[in-house]
Please model this.
Amino acid sequence: MSRVHELRDTLFIGDRTGDDLYNRVFVVSAFGGITDLLLEHKKSGTPGVYGLFSNADNDRGWSDALNDVADAMRAAQDAVLDHPADRASADDFVRERIEGARSCLIDLQRLCSYGHFQLSSHMQIIRELLSGLGEAHSAFVTATMLRRAGVDARFVDLSGWRDEGSYTLEERIKQGFSDVDFARELPIVTGYAQCAEGLMAEFDRGYSEVTFSKIAALTGAREAIIHKEFHLSSADPRLVGADSVVKLGHTNYDVADQLSNMGMEAVHPKAAKMLRQAGISLRVTNAFEPHDPGTLIDEEDGNTSRVEMVTGLGVYALEVFEQDMVGVKGYDSSILDVLTRHKVRIVAKTSNANTITHYLDAPLKLIKRVERDLADRYPGAQISVRNLAVVAAIGRDLKGLKVLSRSLAALEDAGIDPVAVQQTTRDVDAQFIVPRDKMDDAIRTLHRELVESPLASLRQVA
Model:
């Protein structure tokens, strides 16, 4: 979104004229870095307005952080808008939203100074309120920019700002589109939608893809397209080299689910489910190459066995060893209860007679809380945490490729000793657990062996 002004003359308008500009809907996220400032930094966990407010003894820290958000919003819109009137309009929008949010937080803080009201019970609502500010700002600015360029763009705000009604997600979208003329208007829609279900409670920062998919389903879209800054490729081109990667071109929702599990975020699994059920195919394109068809994701199985992507994710391995576990039911479910209570995401797991290991995608401080809870529950168990990485080879069909044996040989030649290895019976992925500092080397090694090698694919025999 921070480069949306570059897309004005390619993606949004390009060589389109007249009616060809319309019958499309754009769902936008916040400008780069804004949601990090509003909530918390996605990678480092540095608290934003939300984190500071939830732990505030006074209003100074979070209020100053809200000022920083306003400054960042103005900087983002000034890079996009050229006309003084448009900038003034955007400034007014930022001022109204930021000061409205500030007043809300001050009032809530004052209310919760009384013992009958607990701040903790309102924090999820505050998280949704703050998150919606970013998407509303970027959608407003984008619509303003396009109108200046002669496009009849319409800002569709699903964030529920100052809305006294209560709507489900479907009702919120229908209400937002109730009088939109798709043939003559180009809706620019907020990725966040305020609704009774509470999108962030279930999806947290993956809510925009859910909104996007629901809109596609409700409007009967011919195709849903996710525009990224890069093509969906066989690996990160910054890691293995732009000349070495291969654009996927065509894959299916099964592979998309595996990529999501590995943090690739091609599309949220729940969003993919909505599209599948509605019979809508998904396309992932490079927004800056508007004439390239990108990668189509649908229900088709591959007719060629091949590894389509090699990717990795840093994880913590939580290992529970208990000699008395043998033949006793309940250990696994008990560990899952603790992980669920702390909202820790499980990437993979392995187990044998007396050991259960979960590979977790979560901050270390959260893993430590899980470790303490399990130690209290199983005082006789040996519980350990290791900083590792899961490197996965993923494809619609890996049959006949000997992915495990070839990969192990390649890793050994590269001097990388896997901690664990596993492949499911469905032959859609193989996972190699390696030391965290060897993840990048392992990805490069497996990509050379499984994608760049002449043996990378085999034609299936009917």
Q: What stands out?
A: The mean pLDDT is 89.
